[in-house]
Amino acid sequence: MTGSTVAQAITRAHHEQRARVVAGLARRFDDLDVAEEATAEAFVAAAERWPREGVPSNAGGWFVTTATRKGIDRLRRESQREARHQAAHIICRVRWR
Prior knowledge:
- 89% of the residues lie in helices and 0% in strands.
- Helix 1 (3-29) crosses helix 3 and helix 2 crosses helix 3.
- The protein is mainly α and 97 residues long.
- The chain has one domain: Rna Polymerase Sigma Factor, Chain: A.
- It is built from three helices and no strands.
């Protein structure tokens, strides 16, 4: 598959799927920022992977799955970051007593 064909497939999927994917993720995560960022990351992943692996037969499903995973990864990172910040705060309070 040529680069222009892959680019056309990504552009078409962006026009046809983006709003639906963002809306679905916003409902699922109850966070529009997470939904938009995860969707954008899914399109970046498509631009990186599809030229090598080819356009999937169900591009819409691929975007939903990939964006969902990206959103979950982001939420996990954020929850871990908060736990690390709390632990660091406790350690600093103990050391400076």
